[in-house]
């Protein structure tokens, strides 16, 4: 039996399993399906490549839980809201918040005057206390005075912009692609090597003021999320 045949059999069996269920070990699979251990290992690696299982060193292999991360014109622009709508338990921590002069590129993207300042915010995303993403946001400092106090250590930036500053943020544009993780990002997310991650960037504008309010750049794990882009009416 080839490893692909075995992986297909296992995929059919896992269809009725629940996220977090323990998957038989390489040795157990080899004995049960009368294959050698290398074939069993390759089959599990294939299932991991398909994001159907997660292999955790020292603990075993488990059925994956992968949430749909939905991006749409009418849907929320907040990581917290998107993940909660998908059934997850998200949280965010702030690693760095500083005020600095805007770069030339930032001035163009945010329509800022010369010598304008911005707030740079670096945050880490979590799902059930596991790191799943990192991101950097840059905002015009004049629009968000006192952001550090209003945001706290783990508040939703989107909600603060909407509720504390009445900016009513909405997506102006968004881009997402799969790329190899930079070493620094992989380290922050405690990942081995440089696995593929979703790399996204975008800009929010104020629906009330009709001006840009944020540019952002971030990374999200592909093994725990499936990014779904929805445009138009699917009804």
Structure description:
The chain contains 8 helices and 11 strands. The chain is α+β, with helices and mostly antiparallel strands. It has 2 domains: 3-63, Arc Repressor Mutant, subunit A (Orthogonal Bundle), CATH 1.10.10; 67-230, 3-Layer(aba) Sandwich (Chorismate lyase), CATH 3.40.1410. The strands form 3 sheets. It has a 6-stranded antiparallel β-sheet with strand order 5-6-7-10-9-8. Strands 1-3-2 form a 3-stranded antiparallel β-sheet. It is elongated. The mean pLDDT is 92.
Offer a concise description of the structure.
This protein has 235 residues and is of the alpha+beta class. It folds into 2 domains: 3-63, Orthogonal Bundle (Arc Repressor Mutant, subunit A), CATH 1.10.10.10; 67-230, 3-Layer(aba) Sandwich (Chorismate lyase), CATH 3.40.1410.10. It is built from 8 helices and 11 strands.
């Amino acid at each position: 039996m080839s490893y692909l045949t075995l992986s297909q059999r296992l995929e059919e069996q896992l269809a009725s399993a629940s996220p977090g269920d323990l998957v038989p070990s390489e040795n157990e699979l080899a004995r049960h399906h009368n294959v050698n251990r290398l074939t069993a290992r390759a089959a599990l690696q294939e299932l991991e490549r398909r994001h159907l299982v997660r292999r955790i060193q020292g603990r075993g292999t488990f059925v994956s839980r992968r949430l749909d991360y939905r991006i749409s014109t009418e849907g929320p622009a907040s990581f917290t809201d998107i993940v909660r709508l998908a059934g997850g338990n998200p949280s965010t921590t702030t690693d760095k918040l500083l005020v600095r002069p805007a770069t030339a590129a930032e001035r163009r993207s945010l329509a800022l005057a010369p010598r304008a300042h911005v707030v740079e915010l670096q945050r880490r995303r979590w799902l059930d206390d596991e790191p799943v993403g990192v991101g950097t946001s840059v905002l015009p400092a004049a629009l968000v005075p006192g952001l550090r106090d209003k945001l706290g250590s783990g508040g939703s930036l989107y909600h603060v912009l909407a509720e504390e500053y009445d900016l009513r943020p909405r997506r102006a544009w968004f881009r997402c692609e799969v790329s190899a993780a930079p070493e620094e990002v992989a380290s922050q997310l405690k990942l081995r090597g440089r696995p593929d991650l979703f790399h996204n960037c975008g800009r929010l504008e104020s629906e009330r003021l009709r001006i840009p309010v944020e540019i952002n750049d971030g990374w999200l794990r592909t093994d725990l999320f499936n990014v779904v882009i929805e445009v138009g009416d699917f009804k």
